[in-house]
Write a structure and sequence with these properties.
This protein has 5 helices and 17 strands. With 254 residues, it is an alpha+beta fold. β2 and β3 form a beta hairpin.
Amino acid sequence: MITHFSDIELQTLSIEGTKQVYADILQFPIAKQTETYIQFQITPFTTISFKEILEPIAPTHFAFQVPYSLFDEIALWLTQSGVQILKDKQGEKVTYHSTISKAVYFKDGDGNILEIISHEYVKEEVLQRRGPLQVMYVREVGFSVPSVPLFREWLKNTLQMRTIHDQDTFNFVIGGTAHVVVVKEGRPWIPIDMKALMPTMNVTFGTPNLEFVQNVNKKENTLHFKQHSYSITLKHTPEFLHAIPKQLHLPLSL
């Protein structure tokens, strides 16, 4: 089964701009850098990468899972950090609070809608946390598509991901800690009504189960797909499982 997002590669208009947000403010270590490419180590198992281009780009959405017990402290730090916190029409900070989860939304320099999110039911001791955001893992990545049902079923049938409820314009498709947010192209991204477009994005899913990869891809260790403007890779990542205490091994209730 898929357990996590291993890498998310997006486009950017400015390598220096991404450094100001992800390295200088959010304090993610730089794993790799060239004149036109930069990669940030978000957790020991996940990177977010940016490739600089000289043409218009379409932003997307992704969310960092943070500990529920520390959410208010982390949200206060984020608000004071200098990032662009999203606000509603009344000028109030955009947040989401329920009995079991909390969230705050913000943006990077390319217009991507970022989120810190926490859930009371997530086991905080399972994974190592990283940086002032105390990121446990990248929970959500947004995929805008012409047909939500077709892309959803492709993920379920090809990558053996699952859904809780099937909908026509918005769906979470889940594999371990990875929540693919599938939305109808043109549907507004909540909370600021920015229309969802299809970005050029390369997403790598990780799994510690080599047999799973081989069953999908006929005895190969890596699997590549192309869907719309998305390049999707399935990668064997045994280090993910090795870093989790045996008493906390999968299935993860994350």
